[in-house]
Amino acid sequence: MMPSWPTGDDPDRVLEVSVRRFVDGRFVDERDEVAAEEPFEIRVAGRSVAVIMRTPGNDRFLAAGFLLSEGVIHGGDDVRSMQLGLDRDGFPQRNVLDLRLRPALEQSERLWQRNFFVSSSCGLCGTASIEAARAQTQPVSSDASTSSSILLGLEAKLRAAQAVFRRTGGLHAAGLFDCQGNLLAQHEDVGRHNAVDKVFGQMLFDKRLPLSNAILLVSGRASFELLQKAAIAGVPIFAAVGAPSSLAVELAAASKITLIGLLRTGRFVVYSEAGRICDAER
Predict the structure, then answer these.
(1) Exposed site from 25, 47, 233, 247, fewest CB < 10 Å?
(2) In whole angstroms, how large is the CA radius of gyration of the chain?
């Protein structure tokens, strides 16, 4: 049976489907909820620049965060306007967002040298090479510090804020915290890099970049492309529930980012810049 939109809250991010569940030795026909995944097209001045597989919601943050991560824009003032894109008959399309940027940016080679297709599992699909990705980042300058007790409390706070995950079990999350452990922003998406882009896009429009006194927590592993996004946004402390890749560790060290992985109940591992954790030397 084809999915149908539920009549309750969150019609964009949650779909209701018919399932056959095996419980206690028998099958039971039920209705269940799954996280929505749809293609999202980003246009600039009417021209397509990216198609991203994402969970609908907060699309303007996603578009801005994506363009920030790709080095096309650098602040909220670079975006002049946003509106739904139009189909061939002139009707708005809910999965298309058309942006106007500062004129000089609309002519930049970085924007038009290639089109992007980004699946929900791919964060570097739009980047020509690892070396080009490295070149976009600079070392993070920050005197931010936190403690192990604060870090150990972050995962529970992010999990409590994941409303759609509780219903579907099918979304990644990214949460931005201050160094005292207060949640500043969080977003969910089928794509872990999309969730991060939505957080940074929100901060861009709030004029809070660079995020020199913040901690970014992601619900999955720490990958190279997520560290790259954090470095571009100026995040000094990056924490992940999962493990980091070797390239993520390498980029964190080069970017002077405190990288924390395997953040679980009562334990975590610090891979770089441990000095920002005030009790790490004890």
Answers:
(1) 25
(2) 20
CA 135 to chain centre: 21
Backbone φ/ψ region at 15: left (φ over 0), alpha (ψ -120 to 50), beta: beta
> Helices marked H in the chain — which ranges?
59-69, 103-106, 109-112, 130-135, 148-161, 163-168, 192-205, 224-233, 246-255
Peptide bond into 210 cis (omega under 30): yes
Residues with active-site annotation: 122
76-110 confidence digits (pLDDT tens): 999 999 999 988 888 999 899 999 999 999 988 77
> pTM for this structure?
0.88
The pLDDT assigned to 117 comes to 52
* 3 state SS of 219: coil
Give the CA distances from residue 168 to residues 9, 17, 129, 175, in Å, rounded to whole numbers and listed in that order: 13, 11, 35, 19
CA dihedral 101, 107, 110, 114 (to 10 degrees): 100
What number of other Cβ atoms are within 10 A of residue 67's Cβ? 26
Report how far residue 183's alpha carbon sits from residue 161's, in angstroms, rounded to the nearest whole number.
9
Over residues 27-55, mean pLDDT: 91
Give the model confidence (pLDDT) of 118-143 as tens digits. Answer: 555 555 554 544 555 566 678 999 99
Residue 52 to residue 191: CA distance in whole angstroms: 9
Output the pLDDT for position 165: 83
Domains and CATH numbers, the chain: 148-276 (3.40.140.10)
The number of CA neighbours under 13 Å toward the Cβ of 38 is 16
> How far is 122 from 52, CA to CA, in rounded Å?
10
